[in-house]
Specification:
The complex is a heterodimer. By secondary structure, chain A is an all-alpha fold. In chain A, about 75% of the residues lie in helices and about 0% in strands. Chain B has twelve helices and ten strands. In chain B, strand 9 and strand 10 form a beta hairpin. The chains are: A mainly alpha, B alpha/beta.
């Protein structure tokens, strides 16, 4: 048994083990391929269906849910304004909540806030839309601000929990170094911890924004959708790209359905772009 | 130096030669002047982590302008003790202290004492070099004082040069002050951390195993810097390196833990020369001669 005892393949059980190994590796590759293929398929399909309706007029005309369809100018404006307002409301609040959880949240109140945040992250977005309908729309009438609030609520827990996670990743030694220099806790937070965590926090915020930008359900009960250009986010119904995709898809007119594909492509590229920027920021930080 | 007035001068206002020199516009960088630093005294000190008592009944006089080394086997409370000296112990979860620690006669655990002020007087350098990763070398040095008071640019430049010279790093970084602090080697990073501590102009500098992660050359540089620094500061250093303690310190405290789970004690405290040649207790002798630890 001296020579060749380390060579395998000699016995039946060795051969079976090797075969099993190959088989399981193959299974893993196969399902990975399926997962990626689905994603590529979705993107490719939307591009193929959507690109054909793109024209200069498509980006300069307002939406129409009848006849030959229209453009998505008012919908793009609406998405832009609503997402911007949602960022202004949700991101600072989420970041502050995350700071609280990371710095002062090691107690029962912190656990409670974390529990609420995690629960909030799981609330169906349409329920948030209904909530805003009851809270603001019944009083103010249709308006884009309520839609932005709904999206901000959806972003809030995500931003808060990512911010908390990133701040906790900042090494304790750096924090201690700052405290040992005689900097008070808030200056330590502002000048040392937050800059170190900045890239991660921004990445998390971008991902949350990308998620919210594609939301449709919370907008149904808040901004309603419109075929007219409305620049005032505080009053009146407004269009949004995601909402238009939904409405166009249920239109009986062939041309409107086609326009819906074009809008879907715009939305897809917008969200992919946000994701790409988020990854790029994270990557640059890693390089440093 | 004006910024010293912003600190709460707890006991005696000391007009140091250095301060006057700066006022006449000369560069403090050229020759670090001598300065009588403040002394410390520890009486009946216990420190806890939650319910666990880490050190018990420590009493020690820390002489001004001397290097006091703390040695002892792992887990005997040296690091815990040094962290109680500038109230960094309470930053840890469940960190709690009983007893008194006097800085020139004033209890740093006194009722109305602000830990932030304590830490400006008693600086600390940690085991692992920890420059601020998002800051340049220059910004790292001034990080501790930039927000305490508004400084003129020229004044800051002087402080940066002076601090880096005292920590023996100036010649190596003077041409790249705007590079990231992380671009330096481990030994350089540690000297940057020392410079950062010096810039705040503390009275006492605590070093918690500052050279344990460094190569012998860097260790030597830090020891050399320490001999220079004690002309101006009171220094306490925790070290695992017996040679380092015997080479660089004036007084040595030997910490010992009788049994696992027991709190650490200050087993023996005397002049370094005495600890290493004629220790009074058997455990001290066994440790310094390398029989355990």
């Amino acid at each position: 048994m001296a020579a060749g005892q380390l060579e395998s393949g000699a016995t039946a059980s060795d051969r079976r083990r090797k075969l099993m190994d190959k088989f399981m590796t193959g299974v893993a590759y196969f399902f990975t391929f399926i997962a990626i293929a689905v994603l590529v398929w979705v993107i490719a399909y939307v591009i193929i269906r959507g690109i054909s309706v793109w024209s200069p007029a498509f980006f300069t005309e307002n939406t129409a849910l009848f006849g030959d369809g229209g453009g998505i100018y008012n919908a793009m404006y609406g998405t832009f304004v609503i997402v911007l307002m949602a960022i202004a409301i949700g991101v600072p609040m989420g970041i502050m909540a995350g700071i609280y959880l990371a710095e002062f949240g090691d107690n029962r109140l912190g656990d409670f806030v974390r529990f609420i945040a995690d629960t909030m992250a799981g609330i169906p977005s349409i329920a948030v839309g209904l909530f805003m309908y009851g809270l603001l729309i019944l009083i103010m009438g249709w308006n884009a601000f309520a839609g932005a609030c709904a999206l901000a609520i959806l972003m809030l827990p995500v931003v808060a929990r990512t911010t908390e996670g990133i701040i906790r990743l900042v090494p304790g030694e750096i924090r201690e170094a700052s405290l040992a220099l005689g900097l008070p806790q808030w200056k330590t937070m502002l000048r040392v911890v937050l800059p170190t965590a900045a890239a991660g926090i921004i990445t998390g915020a971008f991902l949350a924004v990308a998620r919210a930008a594609g939301e449709t359900a919370p907008l149904i009960f808040t901004i309603l959708g419109s075929n007219f250009f409305n620049s005032n986010p505080m009053e009146g119904a407004m269009a949004a790209v995601s909402l238009y995709v939904y409405q166009a898809s249920s239109s009986p007119y062939q041309a409107v359905q086609e326009a819906g594909w074009g809008a879907a492509l715009v939305l897809l590229l917008f969200v992919l772009g946000l994701n790409f920027i988020a990854r790029a920021i994270a990557f640059t930080q890693k390089q440093n | 130096m004006e910024r010293n007035k912003t600190k709460e001068q707890t006991s005696k206002e000391k007009a140091t030669p250095k301060k006057q020199e700066s006022q006449t516009g000369q560069r403090q960088a050229e020759a670090p002047m001598e300065h009588t630093a403040q002394s410390m005294e520890v009486n009946g000190l216990n420190a806890y982590y939650g319910g666990f008592k880490a050190i018990t009944d420590i009493g020690m006089k820390i002489a001004p302008n001397k290097v006091t080394a703390l040695i002892g086997p792992s887990g005997c409370g040296k690091s815990t003790f040094i962290r109680t000296l500038n109230r960094m112990h309470e930053v840890a979860r469940g960190g709690r202290v009983e007893g008194e620690v006097l800085l020139d006669g004033e209890d740093i655990y006194g009722k109305n004492v602000d830990p932030v002020q304590v830490r400006r007087k008693i600086g600390m350098v940690f085991q692992k070099p920890n420059p601020f990763p998002t800051m340049t070398i220059y910004d790292n040095v001034v990080a501790g004082l930039k927000l305490q008071k508004r400084h003129k640019k020229g004044e800051l430049d002087d402080i940066v040069e002076g601090s880096l010279r005292q920590s023996a790093l100036w010649d190596e970084v003077k041409n790249k002050l705007n590079d990231s602090g992380m671009s330096l080697s481990g030994g350089q990073q540690q000297r940057l951390c020392i410079a950062r501590t010096l810039a705040v102009e503390p009275e006492v500098i605590l070093l918690d195993e500052p050279a344990s992660a460094l190569d012998p050359m860097s260790t030597m540089k830090i020891e050399d810097a320490m001999l220079e620094l004690k002309k101006r500061y009171t220094i306490v250093i925790v070290t695992h390196n017996m040679q380092q303690a015997s080479r660089a310190s004036d007084y040595t405290g030997f910490f010992f833990i009788e049994d696992m789970g027991e709190p650490g004690q200050l087993w023996e405290f005397a002049e370094t020369e005495k600890i290493f040649t004629r220790p009074e207790r058997k455990e001290t002798e066994d440790y310094v001669t390398g029989r355990f630890g």
